[in-house]
Amino acid sequence: MSLTDVMSGLALQVFPEVGFVLFGTAFLVVAVSLLLGRNRPHFERGRRLPLEDEIGRQPGRGDRE
Amino acid sequence: MSDRVERFVYDDQIVRMFLLVTILWGLVGMAVGLVIAIQLVLPAVNFQTSWLTFGRLRPLHTNAVIFAFAGNAIFAGVYYSSQRLLKARMWSDALSRLHFWGWQAIIVAAAVTLPLGYSQSKEYAELEWPIDIAIAVVWVIFAANFFGTLARRRERHLYVALWFYIATLVAIAVLHIFNNLVVVAGPLKSYSIYAGVQDAFMQWWYGHNAVAFFLTTPFLGMMYYFLPKAAERPVYSYRLSILHFWSLVFIYIWAGPHHLHYTALPAWASTLGMLFSVMLWMPSWGGMINGLLTLRGAWAKVTEDPVLKFFVVAVTFYGMSTFEGPLLSIKSVNALSHYTDWTIAHVHAGALGWVGFMVFGMVYWLLPRLFQTELWSRKLAELHFWIGTIGILLYIVAIYAAGLTQGLMFRAFDESGRLAYPDFIETTVRLIPMYWVRVLGGGLYITGVVLCAWNTVMTWRTAPASYQEVVHEAPPLAPAYPAEAAPGGFRRAAWHRRWEGKPLTFSIWVVVAVASASLFEIVPMFLIRSNVPTIASVKPYTPLELHGRDIYVSEGCNNCHSQMIRPIRSETVRYGEYSKPGEFVYDHPFLWGSRRIGPDLQRIGGKYPNLWHVRHMEDPRSTTPQSIMPPYPWLAKRPIDFTAVERGVAAQVTLGVPYTPAEVQGAADSAREQGRQIAQSIVEQGGPRGLEETRLVALIAYLQRLGTDIKKMPATAAGDERRAEASPAGR
Question: Which of B14, B333, B612, B667 is the most buried (most CB within 10 A)?
């Protein structure tokens, strides 16, 4: 029996529903994990990263200032 | 943590290079768009020149704005933000330059080959195989440089923008490679290894996700970086960004089949695409909300800052487009919108509003920083914003109206049950006033881009003779997280925190998300026999018909004509029997099209005599007085390349098309004989002599074959076939 035979025997009418349930479950797991956690310091640092890139700047060789 | 501090300088020269060509190619790509918009109201603007016709310029427009304008903008944004977020110079200056020049060479190659008619026909994947290989090589160079920079970063934590860049790099590589698998049939000619239904599925798996991973994820990454920078406020919610990212990456990849509702695609795939498209509302709006709420407390700045104005409108258009996209994926809505300008309006709301305005916001924010001077004119940037916004509104309102008008006219029946607009041309003529408004809107939008180009050049001219190299300092990357930074388990989301510090692990999970979702659709599509029931009377094309098909592809006929009759009453009454999956088993590539500027051609075979086609190609208005189709006089002058005919048939054999060895060997002779017969019939019908070895005859051979195989089915067999296809197992 080939993989083609196996796949051809599947009832694909339920395929969208299976995909939906699988994704919905994964989404809920991730959402619960994120929303129930107490990671404020970590998240706070993470969201500020783009604003940190000016820190540590020093005039270098060739600077006119 | 070590007290040692490292000093480093960012490579901003590469960002300047990508930024300047972004504007240059933006002008070129949008100017071509304006030209083809004008051609739809003034067909004479084709100038009877092959390389200026709509069918050849339309792919040039789409490729230029996507891969040249948006592509270079992505690279500028990625190179600027990644270095700063990672606190590291790009891994290799040489790779950066190779990436830049390689990409520009690809753009030039596309700009030459597409107008010359070298095309694979698949939307946004038209470029022929040598250019596709070059794209893959340059993409690998870009990826090596990016991941090399990740490896030598000084910031452990990967910011959300970088996640989106990783997804872009991974997904585009997968999509590009698998959609462009071909059998080579000449220096600039190839055939897709997939046929018919499966080719259509792969193309829209690619096409939809090109939008997802080339026009969405990199721009979201840039939104997460440049919007907080411009607003001088951190992103609203980091948790929301995690949900946004993973939901988007996982869901988007499933949604492609919604481009093929009511076609010969199996219903299970179509439904799956619709379901996941509707779910896309969730992450898309999560991202939009995250973007807009980043501005909370900073709205006063929006009134003063053109950069923020561009960003706010861009994010708003992102919200609108990503609301409308799932709406259009709902089958009943799609039945109305598909093949009409509604799709074009939707695309341009996203392209002009979201992508375009994100680019311009980024450009105006970067100009003073990259050129180390003031922006030459803030007022000009403000003017650009307002002209661009009005241009978008004029464009999309007119084209939404055109789409709805045409969709409703397609399906309108009169009181007696007959089509209210039986002549297709009636639906086209009705749209012309709206097409004029599009020209106006598009013209305004391009005027704004000209202002941007002017502002850029003038800012560049005021730049210092040599740029300051700002030296940055940061400690080297710690070998691992400090112990206190990674406590907890599932409930404290520590799993994601660990991923954010491990680029390889993070990238692997992105690959898993993209690949698993793809395989869930692709494996059943290719392995289930009932997806494509065979039809005994469907035979391979003759060598001349196959060559005519190549000419159809080369001229870009599929940009205006579909070959897919949906099982919808208005379509079967207008065009004939609906299209069956088994009719396309020898179609490498599929040519179903996505827009009907002209009528569907699936059942055109035998509808008109050969002479009608000769007249129609010479001057479409001689057969259809109000037609906006360009004339194709060169088809009757250019000879058939019989060597290409032989190569084409041989390549089809490699793909599994059942030509006998005798048919392969005698391909050229067979084509000559069929051409002679068609030319003779044209003469007998009162047409010109001497067409037997011209491209026109090959194209006529192909058009006269279209949709005729199914008419050769015995009556009972035809009924059985239809019943089989209507059964749940078959669909």
Answer: B667
